[in-house]
Specification:
The complex is a heterodimer.
Chain A lengths: L2 E8 L2 E7 L13 E6 L2 E5 L7 H11 L5 E5 L5 H4 L2 H7 L4 E5 L16 E4 L5 E4 L2 E7 L9 E5 L4 E5 L18 H15 L3 H12 L5 E4 L5 E2 L1 H12 L8
Chain B lengths: L2 H50 L4 H54 L4 H53 L6 H27 L1 H4 L8
Helix pairs in contact in B: 1-2, 1-4, 2-3, 3-4
Classes of the chains: A alpha/beta, B mainly alpha.
Chain lengths: 246, 213
């Protein structure tokens, strides 16, 4: 089963990382799910694939009443991001799913109906969680062509989806990046191959470097915090992406 | 046995059902193909009977009837497509339901403090049972429709046998007419064989009442 780690808390405003299931089969990529709670309501970010639903659900339930989930934020359309959607909707059909307009007719193949989806326009939107304003930040082509990060200005946390993701080897399963140079080696190949546009990458780096970010939380791997956030942005800015040797 | 293991055990039966439906569909396509063949054969037989003149009047009438039979058979077999599609749909939903049930059961086991999951699982099981009943009805309808086709083919067999008798009165054309009527008999037997295979399909006769196993 996954475990929950509270990475930010101020009263009832929380960011909880749902991470690291030791029983997860190796053929499934490891993912991080995040729960933002405020005023008794919750928003689940990239809820994960159907196969890991039991693990995510039970971990989340230990910390938070899942009936209070107001919605799901899906950074993009991949199966490891939101193929569990139908199961979450079984649990709470009133839940809304925030996703790029581009995927709002693709993702219903995983579940949901016309009422389920809130289409995010390319420029992003503000999502209100019981009065807390969360910003969907454009991250198109990083890696999906319709892709968003989610920024919480109050907590200074940026959920960055696949940006900052690292495919960590067994045993290297810390929640936070502790040694940037050692960590980033496991992110390099992923970013070179998965991120398709240097132009999009440059714009993202410019945008995010102007934001006040204490924690950059990717969907895979460890969380960057403190100085490692800017270190990551600089590293990413320098990296040539969209590279394949074949 | 836990709810999870029950759900997992159901999976092979549903997958087998899908495979059996595919086999049924292939057999139906084969019968449609043979019915087209009968239609062409019947057309040729009609021309042959015309050439034979009064000696093959009866043969001509029977050939015409066989042509009508082939067209009716084709229409009938094609009308089964709707039922086949409905069966595929039910079994596919069932397969998806089994996976959902497995995952919900696992979630209920890991989060026993959430009674809502158990309730959803119960709703889910009820829905599966409802789908089971629908599939059972469809299974019965498909079997009934195939029995109707079987009756039609029995009539086709009688027509082919009658054509054989009529061929004997074909005077100088008797040998040609006998050959054609023999071919009719052969293809009708081919269809009968296909329908017998369909009757024996485990989709209808398996040791279970539904795809849940």
């Amino acid at each position: 089963m996954k475990t929950t780690k509270t990475i930010f808390q101020d009263g009832n405003h929380k960011w909880v990382a749902i991470v690291r299931d030791p029983e997860k089969p190796n053929y499934l990529i490891d993912t991080n799910e995040y729960l933002v709670t405020y005023g008794g309501k919750g928003l689940l970010l990239d809820p994960g694939g159907a196969e890991i639903f039991p693990s995510v659900f039970s971990a989340l339930s230990a910390d938070f009443d899942p009936t209070a989930l107001a919605g799901i934020f899906a950074s993009h359309q991949d199966p490891d991001v939101c193929s569990s959607l139908a199961l979450w909707l079984d649990f709470n059909p009133a839940m809304r799913c925030y996703i790029s307009w581009m995927w709002s007719s693709f993702v219903p193949h995983f579940g949901g109906n016309a009422e389920t989806f809130v289409q995010i326009p390319d420029e992003g939107i503000d999502i209100s969680l019981d009065g807390l304003s969360l910003k969907a930040i454009p991250a198109h082509y990083l890696h999906s062509s319709g892709n968003f990060n989610l920024y919480d200005k109050v907590a200074k946390v940026l959920f960055s989806g696949d940006v900052g993701a690292a495919l960590l080897p067994p045993g290297m399963d810390g929640l936070f990046v502790e040694n940037f140079d050692a960590h980033i080696r496991h992110a390099e190949g992923f970013h070179k191959r998965w991120m398709g546009s240097n132009e999009a990458k440059r714009r993202w780096c410019e945008r995010v470097s102007q934001m006040d970010v204490d924690m950059l939380c990717p969907q895979h791997g460890a969380i960057y915090r403190g100085a490692d956030v800017q270190r990551f942005i600089s590293w990413f800015d320098e990296l040539q992406v969209g590279v394949i040797s074949a | 046995m836990t709810a999870t293991s029950i759900m997992t055990a159901k999976t092979p039966a549903a997958g087998t059902d899908l495979l059996q439906i595919v086999h049924i569909n292939e057999e139906i396509k084969r019968v449609v193909g043979v019915s087209v063949k009968i239609n062409i054969m019947a057309l040729n037989a009609i021309f042959l009977a015309k050439r034979a003149g009064t000696a093959a009047l009866g043969f001509g009438v029977l050939s015409n009837e066989l042509r009508v039979f082939s067209q009716d058979l084709r229409t009938c077999m094609e009308s089964l497509n709707g039922l086949i599609h409905a069966c595929v749909n039910q079994v596919s939903i069932g397969l998806k339901g089994i996976r959902t049930g497995r995952l919900l059961s696992e979630a209920a086991r890991l989060a026993p403090q959430q009674p809502a999951v158990a309730r959803i699982l119960q709703d889910h099981k009820r829905e599966i049972e409802r789908r089971d009943q629908q599939l059972t009805i469809l299974r019965r309808q498909l079997k009934g429709a195939l029995e109707d086709v079987f009756q039609m083919v029995e009539l086709g067999g009688v027509l082919a046998k009658s054509a054989k008798i009529e061929a004997a009165y074909g005077q100088s054309f008797a040998a040609s007419l006998a050959q054609v009527s023999g071919e009719f008999d052969g293809v009708v037997e081919e269809i009968r064989g296909s329908l017998e295979a369909l009757r024996r399909s485990a989709f209808f006769t398996g040791n279970r009442n539904n795809w849940r196993g």
